Amino acid sequence: MLNGDGCPSKILAIKDAVEAVHGRWKLQIVLSLGTGGKRFNEISKEVGGITDKMLSKELKALEANKLIQREVIDGFPPVVAYSMTPHGASLQKLMESLYQWGMEHRKEVIGK
Amino acid sequence: MLNGDGCPSKILAIKDAVEAVHGRWKLQIVLSLGTGGKRFNEISKEVGGITDKMLSKELKALEANKLIQREVIDGFPPVVAYSMTPHGASLQKLMESLYQWGMEHRKEVIGK
Fold it and tell me: What is the rounded radius of gyration, in angstroms, for the C-alpha atoms of chain B?
């Protein structure tokens, strides 16, 4: 990859992957849903500091990116639950690679 | 990772990794240097559309992040060359993972 050609379609694919997890909240929402489907308020509690407006915006973006799915569970009142899609679950391996490299990077740059 | 705990230090490491490659130009500069050390103008030619001011800013950031190194080669006039550090070269595996997942993601979301 690094010593291959920097052809546009490769760069585009890498950029799309980085964009899918970039940003202050996406990672934390994905990690929260990684432990199982949750309701809006449950996610909100786990992702400290996020406003309801921001959480609903981020959930919509993750849904549009097919990383999570939204389900209305019948009841009185009906309940909305969010969970990872199979595509979303495929983030597991990528996040592991990001985590490993990130730890190395922190050691290299800030020494811890 | 996904179904593990979303503990702050893990999130921080992932965020640092994403930040190190996020942005319009960093990837293209890294891919350019991935094929061997280069001078400023050579990088500028390969990374289409970048201004000199932006390129020098991005090179400084990549240097501060210890991903590239800057070397002054004696001569008349002296020449400045940039190359990947060993830490920078370690991006190879991460970018491969980003590329693979990015291709899947593009197929899933836009069908190509």
Answer: 17
